[in-house]
Specification:
The protein contains one helix and no strands. It is an all-alpha fold.
């Protein structure tokens, strides 16, 4: 039983970190696409 509790706690933290990383990657991709679009239009 203690092993399961440890696994749940360990799994929760990386999932939150992955969510933050995914959000940052999404923002960076949107910014890059915006900059690329500006260069294409100009």
């Amino acid at each position: 039983m203690p092993g399961e509790t440890t696994n749940r706690g360990t799994e929760h933290r990386p999932s939150a970190a992955e969510g933050e990383r995914g959000a940052l990657v999404a923002v960076l991709v949107m910014v890059l696409l915006g900059v690329a679009g500006i260069f294409v239009l100009s």
